[in-house]
């Protein structure tokens, strides 16, 4: 592992102009390529304190042995050079957006004398038109099978075509009229190419003219009393309509656009895109990639800050690659690779340069923007739901793998030097806003998967009177209540309260305190850093419990803290053990926030109206019945309030005044501190 200080260039020697830089390892291989508006500012950030760097960035700078840069004139040139170098060197630390077998294409070999249509995966080839990508290969086969009734193009391989030509008889598709059988001369090559051109026009979205022509032929055949031909043309029209229904119209103005959505967490991001051509969804694809965006100076992750950087990476790599494939295929339909419009969830800092670069690839202006309203906004939300689902399924596949779970438990045991694998792990998290409605969650994982019947919610009763922060005191209280009767009855009932219970939990989770835990945990995890771990360890020592190890997981750099240790334990970044602990922490965080929101909503609906002068119990009950939530009450006008029996103009004005002051106080409170985790991270950093 190299020390970045050994190859750090002198700050004064780095230019301040735009440019592209390359990090190389000791063997001279390029391991990372990046661009910058200001090379000096960007490169200097890589040589900061290693403990402040993102783990992936830290691994990159310690794997490198040198850095080089090239100055360019504009940021657009920097984009072009960055993409060229990424394609040339394939650096292992650059995020990659690559297709796999999940996204096949419909290929038409227009460069052959007798073109064929077939399902294809792989690099683009010259002389071939591609349509898609489709979600599944069966979707292409189903569409092609439907359209071959109307456009009987050849779909057989070269070997089958040659064999049938030698035999002098067509294959099965030729006998059932789903191939025009050019192999036996049923149609000439020119006639077959005309059929292929019609199929290409239909797939490219030029459907109206074709359907009008066939409908006209059907009416003419009916007028000539050729009812058999008219019936056949009628069935052809129905087949084309079925094929079009599978590609639903989503944008009525016939827009050509790609709609991109991103869902990110601290480690990975799901990038999903819908390809819309002629207003119809022609295909979709998605990736789950690792990223290094969204980490602020304190090491905290912010998804809203991560998305613009992920979008920038995606646009540069994906469309550069698509343009190269279109160029290699010698097709003039560059719009299939780079559309006229790209809709993104957030604009990156270099959005203008990216738009200029994409316009250069397409040869005409490309718009890069965020959809604000209407059909495009609705479609963007649909794509985002797909991105969320993709990331969720990716995590579930990983967590649902028995081998991966076993490896995770073994890695935790070895890294933390436990006596046995922690088959039962419990995790605690605290949620509140400035010390109000403080709720704690306790979630349980057994054999690496959630045991929701054992989830518990605690309403924090005590205040920290020993000078410690509220979060630290709350962790101590929850730990004490969880393990108070540990020695008296190992299969004890935790001292829980009547807090809200998750709807997704098993029915047993809704039981009262009579529900008993099966056995104590082999590992107790708190969401937080060193102060929280020390608080939990002190309580366990006070209760005389020595057989339950306790650790804390801090979000800052995903560090694992042990009681009494000055430095954290760093798990392998891509290991199954860290992934399992993160899932446990995220589940505890979700459950705690749900409990806090439930407690806060219950309090707010009953307390806001208490401050209104002249509003008695009966009037308050009538208001609550008409406007069951505070948000509904805030939206009500003075006329709406006066419509309630017993409410006059004076009382209505008093209600609106109280609601307005409460809204301002809530907004200031939310800006100061959104939840307990923000306090936790700040105090943890101060303690370090």
UniProtKB/TrEMBL annotation:
<dbReference type="InterPro" id="IPR001162">
    <property type="entry name" value="UvrC_RNase_H_dom"/>
</dbReference>
<keyword id="KW-0234">DNA repair</keyword>
<comment type="function">
    <text>The UvrABC repair system catalyzes the recognition and processing of DNA lesions. UvrC both incises the 5' and 3' sides of the lesion. The N-terminal half is responsible for the 3' incision and the C-terminal half is responsible for the 5' incision.</text>
</comment>
<keyword id="KW-0227">DNA damage</keyword>
<dbReference type="InterPro" id="IPR038476">
    <property type="entry name" value="UvrC_RNase_H_dom_sf"/>
</dbReference>
<comment type="subunit">
    <text>Interacts with UvrB in an incision complex.</text>
</comment>
<dbReference type="Pfam" id="PF08459">
    <property type="entry name" value="UvrC_RNaseH_dom"/>
</dbReference>
<feature type="domain" description="UvrC family homology region profile">
    <location>
        <begin position="259"/>
        <end position="540"/>
    </location>
</feature>
<dbReference type="InterPro" id="IPR001943">
    <property type="entry name" value="UVR_dom"/>
</dbReference>
<feature type="domain" description="UVR">
    <location>
        <begin position="208"/>
        <end position="243"/>
    </location>
</feature>
<protein>
    <recommendedName>
        <fullName>UvrABC system protein C</fullName>
    </recommendedName>
</protein>
<feature type="compositionally biased region" description="Basic and acidic residues">
    <location>
        <begin position="486"/>
        <end position="495"/>
    </location>
</feature>
<feature type="compositionally biased region" description="Acidic residues">
    <location>
        <begin position="496"/>
        <end position="506"/>
    </location>
</feature>
<comment type="similarity">
    <text>Belongs to the UvrC family.</text>
</comment>
<keyword id="KW-0742">SOS response</keyword>
<keyword id="KW-0378">Hydrolase</keyword>
<dbReference type="GO" id="GO:0016787">
    <property type="term" value="F:hydrolase activity"/>
</dbReference>
<dbReference type="InterPro" id="IPR000305">
    <property type="entry name" value="GIY-YIG_endonuc"/>
</dbReference>
<dbReference type="Pfam" id="PF01541">
    <property type="entry name" value="GIY-YIG"/>
</dbReference>
<dbReference type="InterPro" id="IPR047296">
    <property type="entry name" value="GIY-YIG_UvrC_Cho"/>
</dbReference>
<feature type="domain" description="GIY-YIG">
    <location>
        <begin position="16"/>
        <end position="95"/>
    </location>
</feature>
<dbReference type="InterPro" id="IPR010994">
    <property type="entry name" value="RuvA_2-like"/>
</dbReference>
<keyword id="KW-0267">Excision nuclease</keyword>
<keyword id="KW-0228">DNA excision</keyword>
<dbReference type="Pfam" id="PF14520">
    <property type="entry name" value="HHH_5"/>
</dbReference>
<dbReference type="InterPro" id="IPR004791">
    <property type="entry name" value="UvrC"/>
</dbReference>
<dbReference type="Pfam" id="PF02151">
    <property type="entry name" value="UVR"/>
</dbReference>
<feature type="region of interest" description="Disordered">
    <location>
        <begin position="481"/>
        <end position="513"/>
    </location>
</feature>
<feature type="region of interest" description="Disordered">
    <location>
        <begin position="662"/>
        <end position="688"/>
    </location>
</feature>
<dbReference type="InterPro" id="IPR036876">
    <property type="entry name" value="UVR_dom_sf"/>
</dbReference>
<keyword id="KW-0963">Cytoplasm</keyword>
<dbReference type="InterPro" id="IPR050066">
    <property type="entry name" value="UvrABC_protein_C"/>
</dbReference>
<dbReference type="InterPro" id="IPR035901">
    <property type="entry name" value="GIY-YIG_endonuc_sf"/>
</dbReference>
<dbReference type="Pfam" id="PF22920">
    <property type="entry name" value="UvrC_RNaseH"/>
</dbReference>
């Amino acid at each position: 592992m190299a020390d970045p200080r050994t190859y750090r260039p002198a700050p004064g020697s780095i230019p301040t102009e735009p440019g592209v830089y390359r990090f190389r390892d000791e063997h001279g291989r390029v391991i990372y390529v990046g661009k910058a508006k200001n090379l000096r500012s960007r490169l200097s950030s890589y040589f900061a304190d290693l403990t402040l760097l993102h783990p992936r960035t830290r691994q990159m700078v310690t794997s490198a042995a040198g850095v080089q840069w090239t100055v360019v004139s504009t940021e657009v040139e920097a984009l072009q050079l960055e993409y060229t170098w990424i394609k040339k060197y394939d650096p292992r630390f650059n995020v990659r957006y690559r297709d796999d077998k999940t996204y096949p294409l419909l290929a038409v070999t227009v460069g052959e004398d007798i073109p064929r249509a077939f399902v294809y995966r792989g690099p683009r080839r010259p002389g071939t038109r591609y349509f898609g990508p489709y979600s599944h290969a069966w979707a292409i086969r189903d569409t092609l099978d439907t359209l071959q009734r109307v456009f009987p193009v050849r779909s057989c391989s070269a070997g089958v075509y040659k064999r049938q030509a030698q035999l002098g008889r067509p294959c099965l598709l030729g006998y059932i009229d789903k191939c025009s059988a050019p192999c036996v001369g049923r149609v000439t090559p020119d006639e077959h190419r005309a059929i292929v051109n019609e199929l290409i026009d239909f797939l490219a979205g030029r459907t109206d003219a074709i359907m009008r022509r066939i409908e006209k032929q059907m009416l003419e055949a009916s007028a000539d009393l050729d009812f058999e031909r008219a019936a056949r043309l009628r069935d052809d029209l129905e087949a084309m309509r079925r094929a079009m229904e599978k590609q639903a119209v989503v944008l009525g103005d016939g827009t050509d656009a790609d709609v991109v959505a991103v869902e990110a967490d601290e480690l990975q991001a799901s990038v999903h895109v819908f390809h819309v051509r002629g207003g119809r969804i022609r295909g979709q694809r998605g990736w789950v990639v690792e990223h290094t965006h969204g980490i602020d100076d304190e090491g905290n992750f912010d998804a809203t800050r991560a998305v613009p950087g992920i979008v920038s990476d995606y646009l540069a790599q994906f469309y550069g690659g698509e343009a190269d494939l279109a160029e290699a295929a010698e097709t003039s339909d560059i719009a299939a690779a780079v559309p006229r419009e790209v809709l993104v969830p957030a604009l990156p800092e270099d959005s203008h340069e990216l738009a200029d670069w994409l316009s250069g690839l397409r040869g005409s202006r490309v718009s890069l923007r965020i959809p604000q309203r209407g059909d495009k906004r609705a479609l963007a939300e649909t794509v985002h739901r797909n991105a969320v689902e993709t990331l969720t399924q990716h995590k579930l596949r990983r967590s649902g793998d028995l081998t991966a779970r076993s490896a995770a438990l073994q890695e935790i045991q070895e890294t933390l030097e436990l006596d046995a694998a922690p088959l039962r792990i419990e995790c605690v998290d605290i949620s509140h806003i400035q010390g109000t409605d403080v709720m704690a969650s306790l979630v349980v994982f057994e054999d690496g998967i959630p045991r929701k019947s054992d989830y518990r919610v605690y309403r924090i009763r005590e205040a920290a009177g020993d000078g410690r922060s509220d979060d630290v005191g709350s962790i101590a209280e929850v730990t004490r209540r969880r393990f108070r009767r540990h020695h008296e009855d190992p299969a004890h009932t935790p001292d829980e309260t009547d807090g809200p219970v998750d709807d997704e939990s098993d029915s047993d989770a809704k039981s009262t305190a009579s529900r008993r835990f099966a056995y104590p945990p082999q590992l107790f995890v708190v969401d937080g850093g060193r102060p929280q771990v020390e608080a939990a360890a002190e309580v366990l020592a006070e209760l005389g419990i020595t057989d339950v190890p306790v650790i804390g997981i801090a979000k800052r750099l995903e560090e694992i803290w042990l009681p009494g240790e000055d430095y954290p334990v760093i798990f392998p970044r891509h290991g199954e053990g860290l992934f399992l602990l993160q899932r446990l922490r995220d589940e505890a965080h979700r459950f705690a926030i749900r409990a806090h929101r439930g407690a806060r909503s219950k309090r707010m609906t009953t307390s806001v109206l208490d401050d209104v002068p002249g509003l008695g119990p009966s009037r308050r009950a009538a208001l609550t019945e008409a406007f069951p939530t505070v948000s509904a009450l805030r939206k009500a006008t003075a006329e709406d309030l006066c419509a309630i029996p017993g409410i006059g103009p004076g009382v209505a004005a008093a209600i609106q005044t109280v609601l307005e002051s409460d809204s301002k106080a809530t907004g200031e409170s939310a800006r100061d501190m959104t939840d307990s985790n923000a306090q936790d991270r700040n105090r943890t950093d101060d303690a370090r």
